[in-house]
TrEMBL record:
One GO biological process term: cysteine metabolic process
Organism: Lacrimispora algidixylanolytica
Domain named Aminotransferase class V: residues: 21-391
One Pfam family of this chain: Aminotran_5
UniProt KW Transferase keyword: yes
Name the UniProt record assigns to this protein: Cysteine desulfurase
InterPro entries listed in its UniProt record: Aminotrans_V_dom, Aminotrans_V_PyrdxlP_BS, Cys_dSase_SufS, Cysteine_dSase, PyrdxlP-dep_Trfase, PyrdxlP-dep_Trfase_major, PyrdxlP-dep_Trfase_small
Amino acid sequence: MKIIRDDFPILSVLENGKPLIYLDNAATTSKPLAVLNAVETYYRMDNANPHRGVYELGARATKAHEDSRKIVGDFLNASSDEIVFTQNATESLNLIAYSYGIEFLKKGDEIVLSVAEHHSNLVPWQRVSKITGAKLVYLYPDNMGHLTEEELDKKITSKTRLIAVAQVSNILGIEIPIDSIVRRARNAGAVVVLDCAQSIPHMIVDVKALDVDFAVFSGHKLYAPMGIGVLYGKKDLLDKMPPFLTGGDMIGSVHEQSSTYAEVPRRFEAGTRNVGGEVGLAAAINYLNSLGWENIKNHEKELMTQALKGLTDIPHITIYGDPSPDKRHGVISFNVEEVHPHDTASLLDSDGITVRAGHHCAQPLMEYLKINSCVRVSFGIYNTKEDVDIFINSLKNVRGLMGYGS
Ligand code: PMP
């Protein structure tokens, strides 16, 4: 995979006079030339407002928009009319919360979330709960970060109407047992919302095989531009949902006192679209497919195995969640004893290494783990074994530089 580093111009930028070791891929990924060029070509050659102009250029813009939707649909194993373009995972989740949650949930119903959810898959459900009276019920991982069958049995009941969970947590990096969750959801008659923001860069997400009702992700964590997101929804569910945002392009006809709405997916795509972002997302998917998902998985597994071993061997480090690489994808969160996570991140930065420190938009999980914050290192396709070595060696010095014994 080393060869592909040349595909990512930003990786040759110097940070603090040192080569950039970019290890904040869970926050956002760098973009390959295939994506940058596709976006530039769209704006140079095909830019117009899709669905509006009758002229040839407008037809090309509409084609770029719909071709991108088809590529995303094929990628998820969904049909094109089940794919809605949004700004990001957050907007996709809000769309489901407002157009499904508020419309179809009521007092007495239960919404099941994991305590490890990112705020964007938690705060919208708090709004739904407040507006509808439906109760929020939390799944708590065991002390290795796994959701157990007993916990699922206890929390998913005949009152459960909706389960919203991240396939991979942005802190623990651990894959949840989605098959067990969907099976219980089917028995309970509940819908499943799968937040794939942290899983989609690392694995094929086949929405039909998983049999989830909704799935969301952000393009920018999948090597595509910022500002483009995806919502997948089963067609029969999307069809019965009212619009989320209203205005131009999502209508059938508009009269002074009333309007009719377009068919899905256009019903959920109000206003001018981010076609450049859609084209960039399609290019990212084609690029990743051309690398091969088995290659991506094997490469990332090697990096995770090496990093987890390196971290486990350093004294005074706490890793959050199961330190085995088997069910982990891309993300490791940890703390260095007695050192504030921001200090750890700053010291690593002085060696050109970018990691994230903070609560990572998962404050309920921080409370559950009884910490305020932690350091998160996260890997992408272009990271190398040398990156991991440099990171581990730099981390070994952190306690010493802060005046503590090793
Ligand atoms: N869910 C998870 C698990 C995430 O990690 C993130 C981003 N950190 C989001 C949702 C929200 O993504 P965005 O900010 O791109 O909408």
